[in-house]
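Q: Two folds, back to back.
A: First:
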Amino acid sequence: MKVSAVFKFRSPEIRALHLTWIAFFITFYVWFNMAPLASSMLKSADWLTRDDLRLFAICNVALTIPARIIVGMALDRFGPRRVFSVLMVTMSIPALTFAFGSTLTQLLVSRLVLSSIGASFVVGIHMTALWFKPRDIGFAEGFYAGWGNFGSAAAAMSLPTIALTMYGGDDGWRWAIGQSAIVMAAYGVYYWFAITDGPDEKAHRKPRKTAALEVSTWGDMVKLMLWTIPLVGVLAILVWRIENMGYITETGAWIAYAVIALVVVYQLVQILRVNVPILKKGVPEDDRYSFNSVAALNSTYFANFGAELAVVSMLPMFFEETWGLNAATAGLIAASFAFVNLVARPMGGMVSDRMGNRRFVMLSYMFGISAGFVLMGMLNSSWPIIIAIAVTIFTSIFVQGAEGATFGIIPSIKRRVTGQISGMAGAYGNVGAVVYLTLFTYVTPSQFFYIIAGGAFVSWLICLVWLKEPEDAFGDEYYISSVDRMIAEQEAQQGK
């Protein structure tokens, strides 16, 4: 697929691509509408502190973790069109609540609920996979994610100006956030009627079970259970942090820990319920896949997208305080990290398509992330601002490219459960963000960048050992196993 193909607007798949990245763009714009307005919020609300905003930043990514798992299951059952539309409309409610909230509790709870909007990413990934062939999926997914991810940069670049010039006054930030929520709800309604789940009914293949990811061996089931625990278990970090800041009592914290534990146990039981009967019966050889590759991609998304979410949340204030800039200028410069999404992420997918070896591309990008954040860890006020911006862009190229490479591989692992694999990998991006942002509350920005560099290097090692080059990753069609054909026949019979 050539870059010029994205201008063929009459092509059904290109139209679907544009409709979907715009939806993703809007959701990310709303998701990251707090960071660029942080300084304005502190000035207009004297009851807010920097620690409150840091906690809100953690809350802003927390529920995305379970939301991506739930959305992944909903995708395989209901299809991305319905899921995307419903998500955009419903998430406009907590966005409006945050915009006009007048207490710490209102802001905390609404930001926590709004974090579910981060699940929008995996919806579009699934929709794009339904419309494009394996040979083109890297670029298509990269273009979708790159231009959609630019929503966070657009928010950083435009919201301070909208708040100050369009609305003005102490409450300008509230109206700027509220406006973005209304636009998202309107587009959610439009998306419902503007697109279908793939070019035909056969494009959307349903798994046998949506309650948990299907695996191929008993060993893979154990690995799935181990990798599932952190997806919800990491929320205990958020509870601990909220308790330490006095938002909830010790009793309330223990109740929250108990709920988290029950959810984890429930997920593990669902894995057993789905997979034990399948494994006892035996998985046909042509239907098997290696969970090691899924685990490796979970680690890459922890290290690349987790880093992006964490860095985007702290970068505006980092530039503002380190170089003494005003909020609008700092937001514009910090947006450079996400700005390169427009090119770097599609390029990551395209390189993955054209190199003929998706595994090698993944390894190269992860090593580049580690090197880039080591350089960012060296930044301080003695560095010329232009050099600091260049280092930020250099690092971002590898971060965004690695994200594109990750989802250039995922659709080829196991077509039938793409939604669930995407949901799990995507959720690990938010696990990374929660871990990194929590660590950020205890370290300096330089130490923070070094920590992220270390995480990327660990992921590189995991990929080196576990990640396998997917079969038929450059074919004209996705591989269809005997089980896929059996499920399709059963659905056809039921439809008669």
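A: Second:
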Amino acid sequence: MRNHLKQFINGEWVESTGSETHEVINPATEEVIGKISLGTKEDLDKAVAAARAAFPSFSKTTREERVEMLEIIAAEYANRKEEIIDVITEELGSPRSISEKVHYNMGYNHFSEAAKALKNFSFSEDRGDHTVVKESIGVSGLITPWNFPTNQASTKIASAFAAGSPVVLKPAEITPFAAIILTEIFEKVGVPKGAFNLVNGTGETIGDGISSHPDIDFVSFTGSAGVGEKVMKNAAETIKNVALELGGKSPFVMLEDADVEKAAKAAVSHIATNTGQVCSAGTRMIIPSSKKEAFEEAVKKVLPEFPVGDPQDKNYVGPLVSQKQWDTVQSYIQKGIDEGATLIAGGTGKPEGIEKGYFVKPTIFTNVKNDMVIAQEEIFGPVMSIITYETIDEAIEISNDTVYGLAGYVFGEDKETLRKVATSIRAGRIKVNNAELDFAAPFGGYKQSGIGREWGDFGIEEYLEKKAILGYPA
């Protein structure tokens, strides 16, 4: 049992001022694996006061000091590798291979990339008769989601530390233990007191408290569009800066000249990785109508390569994170059936032979129209919609026919067509074929997928204010 009943405030683990606790469930077994304290408004006020007190000195630390701190954090993060993998596998239900290759690695890379970006980051620029300087934005409130417990916390914290911004972190209460390990890492390496504070709790108390707190200067939130809207409204009361990374319904466009089997495998990996609980997943498969039958056969053929089962075993697809999420995904699968889409794999209910755990069947619909609910709303589970097109312009039109714009994917051979589609999709990140992740590339969305960018130097920029100095020699 992982029982963590304290908050981390001003460099110390302290008792919460409240007595309410929250049980954390292993979604693969439905068993309680630990407990956390749910923080109170008083806990949050103490954390914000600690961050505010740390700001004058932390914001004035040198570039070299912050680079060294980030590098030491990355090294200690690597020392905790096996424990991080264990925790994510337990609290999220992520298969061990994904816990390592995705979750652990993304967290590590954000700290190391922030250190690298900071070494060459320009905090001052002479522009004719004036100078522009970039200064720490102040105290930052960070609200992170349950689906990527290390990735989202690490990219926000690394960028904030690089900019000299003290932070207050509220992780998701259903996957809190990865953030607690991060906190232990910061404590061990000697992050200055007050520069990092952790307050566990609910969105209603701690999340709303962060977004509306008068002594927090900037809020970075990752989560649903609905909660993002609430964060913006709360922040507006004190005119604080906001960065939002929200939902997605990303198009995956297969070109006429694409290798169908390779495209099918890449497409299935999108709904299988992290059990489809990925905001940037390419869940709308947009394919040439001439390739429809071949693609359908290819995805059915490749699906067994992504087995569902115990995340401690050699499976690729684990459970959804909670009973609530399971119910939500089931309702969307049923909506797809009711809307008249054709089910060619998966469906409602649990996979055959599995009775315990929030497991679902990876599900593939074809004959999907882009105005169907399953093609427009974020399902956040292993569900693919296959949509056909006749021309490239129609494929682009379908791709952009969504309120979201987080990511897009293009698969094919012709370079001119790849470029045309990639530059025409209105989304914050486009991946051509099987391009590798680049942690220096910006991540964020157009439209209702969010505001601002994370990762690398673009992430650091979010935690900085810009000041123009006129009439003073450089």
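Q: And?
A: The chain has a mean pLDDT of 97.
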